[in-house]
Design a protein that fits this description.
Protein name: RAB6-interacting golgin
Radius of gyration: 52 Å
Organism: Leersia perrieri
Number of helices: 2
Distance between the termini: 137 Å
Structural class: mainly alpha
Pfam families: Transcrip_act
Subcellular location: Cytoplasm; Golgi apparatus
Largest sheet: none
Keywords: Coiled coil, Cytoplasm, Golgi apparatus
Length: 149
């Protein structure tokens, strides 16, 4: 990596108690120093573990990318499918609504057509009846005129 200076690895400092210091005064200071050394060591180990975990995550991501080169394309296509599905929902609802309206209008149209056919038939009957009556009257008039001459 550029711009970084190589640093020597941290060295662990071990303090060994001299047997002469076990007895008398000054023991409290050494115990406190030993405790701080242990806590520093545990912090160091925790940081190392964290770095290792991050490295593993990066490697896993790289491996995933290498293992499936079409992964990005698949994600893009899935997102587009989601968008199209969201667009299809209202269109489907509109389509169902329009189909229902169409069926209702078609039913009303067919009923009006039936009514019209009945009315046309009735009109034909009335016109035919009227024509028969006229012919009958005309024949009666003809008979009356013929009887007069």
């Amino acid at each position: 990596m550029q711009g970084e200076v190589d640093q020597p690895p941290m060295q662990m400092v071990l303090r060994v108690k001299h047997p002469s210091s076990l007895g008398g005064g000054g023991g409290g200071e050494e115990e406190a120093g030993e405790a701080s050394s242990r806590s520093a060591l545990s912090v160091f180990k925790a940081k190392e573990e964290q770095i290792e975990r991050k490295k593993m995550e990066v490697r896993e991501k790289e491996l995933e990318g290498m293992a499936d080169p079409a992964r990005k394309e698949v994600e893009v296509i899935r997102k587009r499918i989601d968008v199209v599905n969201r667009q299809l929902k209202p269109l489907g609802k509109t389509c169902v609504k329009k189909e229902k309206e169409y069926k209702e209008i078609l039913e009303a149209y067919n009923e009006k057509n039936k009514e019209k056919a009945l009315l046309v038939n009735r009109l034909i009957e009335l016109v035919s009846e009227s024509e028969r009556m006229r012919m009958k009257k005309l024949e009666e008039l003809n008979k009356t005129v013929d009887s007069l001459y």
